[in-house]
Amino acid sequence: MPSSSKRQQRFFQAVKGAKNNPNAPAHLRKVAKSMTDTDIDAFASSVTEEKDLKLKKAVLAILKDIQDPMYLQEDDTETNIHPVAKTLPPVKRNFEQYVAEHLGHPLGTKEKEALNTFQDVKPTKVSREEIRYETTDEFQQSTTTVIKKMRMGADFVYTAFVKHSKPETPDEKEAPPEAGAEAGATPSAEEAGVDEIIVINSIPFKDEIKGGAILAEFLKKIDL
Fold this sequence. Notes:
This protein is α+β, with helices and mostly antiparallel strands. The protein contains 8 helices and 7 strands, in the order ααααββααββββαβα. The protein has 2 domains: 6-67, no CATH class; 84-167 and 191-221, no CATH class. Strands 1, 2, 3, 4, 5, 6 and 7 form a 7-stranded antiparallel sheet that branches. The protein is elongated, with a radius of gyration of 26 Å. The relative contact order is 0.16.
């Protein structure tokens, strides 16, 4: 079964070279593992104009398989992607202080490019180590979301820190201090700037290419 084009032949020559090379690209090693040495040699050896339907189907099946995002979890949903791994119990802390305590890793170029694929909401800030979104709904409830790339064992995850804030009512803005309040009294959680923070982790990944694909889907799931 020779290749049907020079481009196809070059591809299978690269597959042949990846057969016993642990440093070869993962997609080439995956194809090499799925084929016999005889078939790889046949594809890599020569080019023919033969329109063999079986050959074409075999090649298309292999190419389609290596292009599938195998690093993403799958099920019966439309996107077949589950980017969210876990939502942690709410934390009651000052939002900005809590976020600052969690040092993120620098975002790669591919990860920042992934933001362009999510058109629903634009980030208010993208820095070297974080992505920030600030939105307000029709009920004037604001949401602040900060996303950081965090280390988890040998892998990375995206962690979203989310804070929801309700608008103050006219009564709350104009209310006088409570009767009996004394100087030096312990302030309430609201007065002390304590927020309820939701923390959401993505599924793990190892490099920024996979991370970029996960990030694009992660943004859709965290309700910005």
